[in-house]
Amino acid sequence: MRCRVCGEKAFIKLHYPKMYLCADHFVEYFERKVKRTIEKYKLLKPDEKVLVVISGGKDSAVTAYVLKKLGYNVECLHINLGIGEYSEKSEQYAREQCRIIGAPLHVVNVRELLGKGIGEVRTRRPTCSYCGLTKRYLFNKFAYDNGFDVIATGHNLDDEASFIFSNLMNWNTEYLAKQGPVLPGEGKFVRKVKPLYELTEREVVAYALAVGLEYIVDECPHARGATTIEYKEILNEMEEKRPGTKINFVKGYLRKRHLFEAELREIELKECKLCGMPAQGEKCSFCKFWGLEEPVTLKIANTDDEEPFGP
Asked: What sequence ranges are listed for the domain Rhodanese (predicted)?
């Protein structure tokens, strides 16, 4: 098949909208779509300092690559979760990705910072649960401590559709009231945005291949059996039968999101007595879970610092 624009050999067949594109015109299409997403949802301003949380995977690497190419002031943060060979491999990929992108990389090593890696804590709490708590705290505190205006994550259309689907199936209305392409900043919570919000996982994979970004394909050992994977498979089957299902589902949700806002509870946030970050009680969930006696230090010594942070 031939590219719809130039007639050269097609690199990819897009199912929605249905068309064939060569590699060069697909890259143009992808970057134009990211730019339109940023403008449509007012995600970023040209002069803002952007932190991209880069995992070594395709989504975050593509996010950093495109934002850098579009002229944004991008720096990257990699959180080494201390999950043996998987984390070491992830960090190697993140370093190589940032070298190609031309963006500074900062690394936070969970085991060196907190004494144990993810999966090594004796707790009844599910591993993915406290891993999420840890990552959210670290990238928000890092961004806040170092003066970043906004955090960009690599969530794509498949991620968003499966998250909405999962929360609808379980009627988690509080989550449904807050989900979207941008989470506004408030106090010490730094604004978070999703530039790949309207791009599918398949398109992200194709873009990484087209621009030469290699990424880790191994799945986190603790993610096996996660229900989100099952929901993605269901949505993929529906998309296969009826192209456009995912984007129409997500756009429909955004139009009706206000219906869930009544479920939001007013929560009075205090400052954690240990680290000063937002907390519902005397200590924030992060400091409480990890049993900290002094706050972690995430302040960058200088902009070229690529060494792991410690207490």
From this structure: 14-95
Asked if the 31-216+225-290 domain carries CATH number 3.90.1150.10, the reply is no
d(Cα 119, Cα 236) in Å, to the nearest integer?
A: 30
Count of C-beta atoms within a 10 Å radius of residue 152: 29
- What does the pLDDT look like over 40-78, one tens digit per residue? 999 999 999 999 999 999 999 999 999 999 999 999 999
Q: Is 287 annotated as a binding residue?
A: yes
Residue 266 has pLDDT above 90, yes or no: no
Per DSSP, the three-state class of 180 is coil
Whole-prediction pTM value? 0.92
Instruction: Confirm or deny that 272 is annotated as ligand binding.
Output: yes
Beta bridge partners of 152: 52, 193
The neighbour count for residue 81, using CB atoms within 10 Å, is 24
DSSP letters spanning 252-310: HHHHHGGGGGGG------EE-TTT-SEESSSS-HHHHHHT-SS------SSTT--SPP-
DSSP notation for 120-156? -S--SS-HHHHHHHHHHHHHHHHHHHTT-SEEE----
Number of H helices, E strands in the chain: 11, 10
How far out from the chain centre does Cα 33 lie? Answer: 18
Burial 97-127 (b: 16+ CB within 10 A, else e): bbeebebebbbbbbbbbbeebbbebeeeeeb
Q: Which residue has the higher pLDDT, 307 or 276?
A: 276
Residue 279 makes CB contacts below 8 A (sequence gap 6+) with 269, 270, 271, 272, 273, 285, 287
Cα–Cα dist 242/77, whole Å: 38
Residue 226, pLDDT score: 64
275 annotated to a ligand binding site? yes
What contacts 214, CB < 8 A, 6 or more positions away? Answer: 93, 96, 97, 208
